[in-house]
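Field log, afternoon session.

UNIT: design team B
ACTIVITY: writing a sequence onto a fixed backbone
BACKBONE:
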C-alpha cells in the first residue's frame, strides 16, 4: 500500500539528480498526491504562442526573478494555477531527478496533501484531473502517440485516461515516480 512515509524515505535514500543551472530557462512543477494515491494533473488551456498549449501537465511554470529557488517556483505556480497553498496543505516528500528539454530545464517536487483541498484552475487551466497511481501504472492504459514536428514524424509513449493523453515530460516524471514507488505500493 502507498504511504507518504515510504515515499519520503525513498527520496532520503536515493536523492534526486539535480542539473546545475545553465543558460536554458528553468521551470518547476508540483506533483501533488493524496493519501489514497491520487495524483493531480491539469490540461493546459489553449493559448496562442504556448508550445505546451492543450497538453496534460502538472501545476508549475518558469523560475521568476523573485523566486527564492525552484521549490518556491513550484509552490507559487501551484497557488496561481490551481489555488492550492502547498505550504499550508501539504508536506514535501521529495524531489524528482531534473529533466532537460531542448527549450527548458524542469524540476519536479512531490508533495503529499495533509489537508483537504478544493483546487480551482485559473485562466491557464482548461480542466483538472485526479488520476490514481494504479491506473497510471496499468499497462492497459499505455499506448503511443504520433506527432509531426519540423517535417519529421515522431512516436511517443503515452497514457490514455479519462479521455486525455499524457506524454512527454509529464509521462517521464510519472514513470520515474512509479518506479520509485515500486509495484507493491500501487496495489
Amino acid at each position: 500500500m502507498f504511504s507518504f512515509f515510504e515515499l519520503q524515505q525513498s527520496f532520503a535514500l536515493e536523492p534526486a539528480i539535480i542539473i546545475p543551472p545553465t543558460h536554458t530557462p528553468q521551470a518547476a512543477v508540483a506533483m501533488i498526491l493524496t493519501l489514497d494515491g491520487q495524483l493531480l494533473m491539469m490540461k493546459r488551456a489553449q493559448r496562442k504562442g504556448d508550445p505546451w498549449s492543450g497538453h496534460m501537465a502538472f501545476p508549475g511554470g518558469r523560475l521568476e526573478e523573485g523566486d527564492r529557488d525552484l521549490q518556491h517556483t513550484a509552490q507559487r505556480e501551484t497557488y496561481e494555477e490551481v489555488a492550492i497553498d502547498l505550504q499550508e496543505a501539504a508536506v514535501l516528500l521529495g524531489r524528482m531527478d531534473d529533466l532537460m528539454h531542448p527549450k527548458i530545464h524542469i524540476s519536479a517536487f512531490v508533495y503529499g496533501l495533509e489537508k483537504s483541498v478544493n483546487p480551482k484552475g485559473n485562466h491557464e487551466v482548461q480542466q483538472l484531473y485526479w488520476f490514481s497511481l494504479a491506473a497510471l501504472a496499468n499497462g492497459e492504459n499505455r499506448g503511443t502517440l504520433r506527432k509531426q514536428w519540423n517535417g519529421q514524424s515522431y512516436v511517443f509513449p503515452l497514457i490514455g485516461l479519462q479521455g486525455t493523453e499524457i506524454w512527454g515530460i509529464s509521462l517521464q516524471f510519472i514513470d520515474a515516480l512509479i518506479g520509485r514507488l515500486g509495484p507493491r505500493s500501487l496495489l
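LOG NOTE: The two ends are 6 Å apart (CA to CA).
NEXT ACTIVITY: expression trials, pending approval
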